């Protein structure tokens, strides 16, 4: 394409952390190199940034959508009538050149209600996983804020401040801070269930799901030893969401129809699922959670280490992909039950692939391209704050050695985390977690991280070196054959 184009784009990913901004930067750099004008709106963890104006969309020749969690109805309406090139954000980095080459041939006219998708997304809009990620995204601020407050309270006590609850008179400041923090853990479950239901069928489902999920985790009301936990939030959030979706299709006539969403749906949904939860769903889910907690608390050490290897390997395998998120979700879901050692595996292993790749480029620069060397500093810094995605370009360049190195070192490091009794209270700031009280004990954390990084770097250098030599020999053999012919 010779003439410069006016382009607009949106990037988003399920977590809203690394992929969202990495792809936005890549699109901007490539567009500038081709002489095009582009503006990219990012829909990440910080909310919508660099929002596209209606006038900019109207003037654009093409719209690029690199998305991992779909678009809402408002966004689809914004691009109605535009030529849209849509692809999964997981494919954007490795196909950045093809995106611009294929704009004329692969773009499709976008209708507001078309929901057109080109290819399979990691988290497809309208899928069950997209609804679950909506719930997780809503719950994260609760557990992050609450976890940091609990950590601060523990630090204050360690510094010598008194810890006294209300039963002994006026409560101490450390107790107040800790109690506020634990409210975050308490409400993250009903918030998650409410946003899962809201993602499926909008506002009418929100209040019933919140109240019912709160009920399912109130041991006093249910008379159970444990609440339904994250599992209950998932089941009830999905059930209420789909129930309300079909309920909204009921036609009641002009007089009663306005009352459907504001009164009838919340009342009937809350009544039906409230009763079901009290008598059936709540106790049943609570018994399942009791069984899971009992298993985790009584699992033999050898089995626990084996499970830790599996979790660590899954976290490192696809660097923010579906396997990584499955392991992350399992570990994260245990925080509400005050089980912190499994989430500590996330806090260590998620740091390693990007940091190890970046450090390895400085130790063995001959194994990496100039582009990989230029990205090394960013990979180390971003990776240190628990965003695994910066390791993806390194893995794409040499999949077999890089993924093997990451997976093996991640599994072994997961075992070390459990063996040393490391715990993590909540999501935080990666390598700085011990300094703000979210990760403990401090010295074992840094020792295990250093050991894991050393192993990961060593495996990268050894395996990638062997892989490059093997590739060079194969290329030389092909050239010899071609020369003989």
UniProtKB/TrEMBL annotation:
Single annotated GO MF: protein-N(PI)-phosphohistidine-fructose phosphotransferase system transporter activity
Single GO cellular component term: plasma membrane
EC number: 2.7.1.202
Transmembrane domains' residue ranges: 132-153, 173-198, 228-247, 259-281, 301-321, 342-363, 375-396, 403-423, 443-463
CDD domains xrefs: PTS_IIB_fructose (cd05569)
Name of protein: protein-N(pi)-phosphohistidine--D-fructose phosphotransferase
Stretches assigned to the PTS EIIB type-2 domain: 7-105
Substrates-to-products reaction catalysed: D-fructose(out) + N(pros)-phospho-L-histidyl-[protein] = D-fructose 1-phosphate(in) + L-histidyl-[protein]
Keyword Glycoprotein appears in the UniProt entry: no
Domain of life: Bacteria
Stored SUPFAM superfamilies: PTS system IIB component-like (SSF52794)
Record GO biological process: phosphoenolpyruvate-dependent sugar phosphotransferase system
Residues annotated as domain PTS EIIC type-2: 128-475
UniProt membrane topology term: Multi-pass membrane protein
One Pfam family matching this protein: PTS_IIB
Locations listed in the record: Cell inner membrane
Keywords: Cell membrane, Kinase, Membrane, Phosphoprotein, Phosphotransferase system, Sugar transport, Transferase, Transmembrane, Transmembrane helix, Transport
């Amino acid at each position: 394409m010779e003439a410069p184009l006016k382009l607009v784009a949106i990037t988003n990913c399920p977590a809203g952390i690394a992929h969202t901004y990495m792809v936005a930067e890549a699109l901007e750099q490539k567009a500038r190199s081709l002489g095009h004008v582009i503006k990219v709106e990012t829909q990440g963890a910080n909310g919508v940034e660099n929002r596209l104006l209606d006038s900019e969309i109207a003037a654009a020749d093409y719209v690029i959508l690199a998305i991992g969690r779909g678009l809402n109805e408002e966004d689809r309406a914004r691009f109605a009538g535009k030529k849209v090139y849509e692809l999964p954000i997981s494919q954007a980095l490795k196909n950045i050149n093809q995106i611009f080459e294929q704009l004329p041939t692969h773009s499709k006219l976008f209708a507001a209600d078309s929901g057109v998708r080109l290819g399979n997304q990691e988290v497809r809009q309208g899928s069950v996983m997209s609804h679950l990620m909506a719930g997780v995204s809503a719950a994260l601020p609760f557990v992050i804020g609450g976890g940091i407050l609990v950590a601060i309270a523990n630090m204050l006590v360690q510094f010598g401040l008194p810890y006294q609850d209300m039963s002994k008179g006026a409560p101490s400041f450390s107790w107040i801070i800790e109690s506020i923090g634990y409210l975050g853990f308490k409400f993250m479950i009903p918030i998650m269930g409410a946003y899962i239901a809201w993602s499926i069928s909008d506002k009418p489902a929100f209040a019933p799901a919140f109240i019912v999920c709160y009920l399912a985790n109130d041991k006093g009301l249910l008379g159970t030893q444990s609440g339904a936990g994250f599992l209950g939030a998932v089941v009830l959030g999905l059930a209420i969401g789909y129930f309300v979706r079909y309920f909204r299709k009921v036609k009641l006539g002009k007089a009663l129809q306005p009352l459907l969403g504001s009164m009838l749906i919340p009342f009937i949904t809350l009544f039906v699922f409230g009763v079901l939860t009290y008598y059936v769903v709540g106790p049943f889910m609570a018994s399942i959670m009791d069984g899971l907690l009992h298993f985790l608390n009584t699992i033999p050490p050898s089995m626990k280490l084996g499970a830790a290897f599996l979790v660590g390997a899954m976290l490192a395998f696809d660097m923010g992909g579906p396997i990584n998120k499955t392991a992350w979700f399992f570990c994260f879901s245990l925080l509400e039950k005050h089980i912190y050692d499994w989430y500590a595996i996330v806090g260590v292993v998620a740091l390693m692939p990007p940091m190890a790749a970046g450090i390895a480029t400085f130790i063995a620069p001959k194994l990496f391209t100039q582009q990989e060397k230029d990205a090394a500093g960013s990979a180390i810094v971003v990776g240190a704050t628990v965003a695994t995605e910066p390791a993806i370009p390194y893995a794409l360049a040499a999949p077999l050695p890089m993924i093997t190195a990451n997976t093996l070192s991640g599994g072994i490091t997961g075992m070390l985390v459990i063996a040393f009794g490391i715990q993590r209270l909540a999501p935080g700031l990666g390598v700085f977690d011990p300094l703000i009280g979210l990760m403990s004990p401090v010295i074992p954390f840094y020792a295990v991280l250093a050991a894991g990084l050393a192993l990961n770097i060593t495996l990268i250098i050894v395996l990638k070196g062997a892989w490059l030599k093997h590739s060079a020999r194969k290329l030389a053999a092909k050239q010899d054959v071609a020369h003989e012919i």
